Amino acid sequence: MAWSAIRRWRDELGDVYVLGAVRVALGLLLFANALRALRDLQRGYFGDAFHWPILPEGLVPSRTGYAALVVSQVLLAMLVVAGYRARLALCASALAGTYLLLCDRLQFHHNRWALFCYSLLLSLSPCDRSFFIAGEIPGTRTDSLWAARLTQLQVSIIYVASGGWKLLDSDWRGGRVLLERFHLYGSLAIARGVPPAVLDWVSSPECTSALAKLAIATELFLAVGLWRSRTRVFALWWGVVFHLVIEATSNVEGFTWLTLAVYGLFATPDVRARKLFYDSSRHRGRAIARVVWLLDWLARFEIRAWAPDAVKRGHAVVVVRRDGTHATGIGALAMIARATPLIFPLWGPLAFVASFTRAGETSTGA
Amino acid sequence: MLEVGPRARVGIAACWIAGQAALVTTAPLRPDRIFGFCMFPEASTMQIHLERELDGRRAAVPHGKWSAHDAAGQLAAFSWEDRVRDPILSQLDTRVFASYGVDAQLARLQRALDDVADHMPEDAETARLIAEVTVWKNGREPSTVTVFSHWRRRS
């Protein structure tokens, strides 16, 4: 049974369109990381001051070598985004970044290490078949998904590690760490738009204790829930909310956007499996279709205008799910949010409201 | 070049998972727990007070700056920040957030003290550097830790 599961993973094929979108997002984050290193270099070369290499000191690059490496990281990130020799550039970016982390552990941050892990794994996948502006046009977009699945597994490894360490730490479990973080960073959260009354409420020991347990449970749930088809959409939504809250209350460099980008790999590997019909005679229908067309980065929808008939009359848009069922009104909006990355945070409340309507938004397989 | 055959896929995945598992489970053996994905491990703060030891007595190092004679008797100026640019360790006599936890910062401080001690050959007076560190671990009552650089060989 285990061997048959391994074989299924090893030989799985699917549309790799989404891999290109994730590659572009990783490329942008690699670019931002390389620019930060370049700015740091302008302030001074790390090797001229106290640093703590993991590698032998003799393997730490000279100032010139380091400058060349950082500039090459900028160029490699551009290649990753452009899609030209993208896999090689992604692999080289990951190796160069890891090498530099090993040259000075003072510069180590989990988000940087995670970025290089994801980049290396994604470079083993056919992530260069979509979202490219240069190079050869690929013959087919159906290819192996083994490396994409391994990249997804890395997401779970990070959640298990992070949640597991917190679970083993009594200060974390009891809420003491969160309580102190709120005391230390409360002003930052308020500056980022968190209402002071909310901060006061969550900064009580009882609340931080509950929040700590919720955070641990969330990380451990995400490690598993992202893989199960019945829980995947909720896990993705809950994960997005979880990471956006962290982003609002802490300084995590690019970790939020990195994790949300890699969430794209959990999308079903197909394209335009759902249909969005809109009434081209109505402004609302045209506007929604236009917005979906602009934001449908994962190519979830086939978008078509229709001539209103007896079934569709009265609706600006109708979404046809994978299973062929129709969603209209708030249910259609929930379906659009569910499949559109930028407005995905709205899926939870929309789906909740839609669940009270007659049509509902209950189809889990769609 | 990056195409991988079916057999190699299993091998690569097995090595990757084993490697990550090893890095994560051995994280507590490293003071800064790097490669362990131990996110937000603590909410501790610390304050570093730097001193020099001169033939059995201690001298304060206000703002990380001091003057000392070299072997020829010339007076020279020294600064902690000339070598230590880390945003946490460079802030002396100021309460700062101990990113990645107190153990991580104390380990870094130990190496920073040794590094500075090794990079001031003109200072013929300082026997070693001492950091008195006040630590507030996860908001608890403060405790003090003393970290010493290694003894310097003065010319």
Task: Provide a concise account of the structure shown.
Chain A has 366 residues and is α+β, with helices and mostly antiparallel strands.
List keywords for this structure.
heterodimer; A: 366 residues; alpha+beta; Glutaredoxin; 3 domains; four-stranded mixed beta sheet; two-stranded antiparallel ribbon; disordered C terminus; B: 155 residues; five-stranded antiparallel beta sheet
Characterization of this structure:
The complex is a heterodimer of chains A (366) and B (155). By secondary structure, chain A is α+β, with helices and mostly antiparallel strands. Chain A folds into 3 domains: 15-144, no CATH class; 158-258, no CATH class; 274-354, Glutaredoxin, CATH 3.40.30. Chain A contains 15 helices and 6 strands. Chain A has helices spanning 2-11, 17-43, 63-82, 86-103, 110-123, 146-168, 170-173, 176-191, 196-202, 205-225, 232-249, 255-263, 283-295, 329-339, 347-354; strands at 13-15, 142-144, 274-279, 301-306, 317-320, 326-328. In chain A, strand 5 (317-320) and strand 6 form a beta hairpin. In chain A, helix 6 (146-168) packs antiparallel against helix 10. Chain A starts with a helix and ends in a 12-residue tail after the last helix. The longest helix of chain B has 20 residues, at 6-25. Chain B is α+β, with helices and mostly antiparallel strands and 155 residues long. Chain B has helices spanning 6-25, 80-83, 102-118; strands spanning 45-54, 57-60, 65-69, 75-79, 95-97, 128-136, 143-148. In chain B, the strands form 2 sheets. In chain B, strands 1, 2, 5, 6 and 7 form a 5-stranded antiparallel sheet that branches. Chain B folds into 2 domains: 1-39; 45-148, no CATH class.
How would you summarize the topology of this molecule?
The complex is a heterodimer of chains A (366) and B (155).
Chain A: H1 2-11, E1 13-15, H2 17-43, H3 63-82, H4 86-103, H5 110-123, E2 142-144, H6 146-168, H7 170-173, H8 176-191, H9 196-202, H10 205-225, H11 232-249, H12 255-263, E3 274-279, H13 283-295, E4 301-306, E5 317-320, E6 326-328, H14 329-339, H15 347-354
Parallel strand pairs in A: 3-4
Antiparallel strand pairs in A: 1-2, 3-5, 5-6
Helix pairs in contact in A: 2-3, 2-5, 2-12, 3-4, 4-5, 5-6, 6-10, 8-10, 10-11, 11-12, 14-15
Chain B: H1 6-25, E1 45-54, E2 57-60, E3 65-69, E4 75-79, H2 80-83, E5 95-97, H3 102-118, E6 128-136, E7 143-148
Antiparallel strand pairs in B: 1-2, 1-5, 1-6, 3-4, 6-7
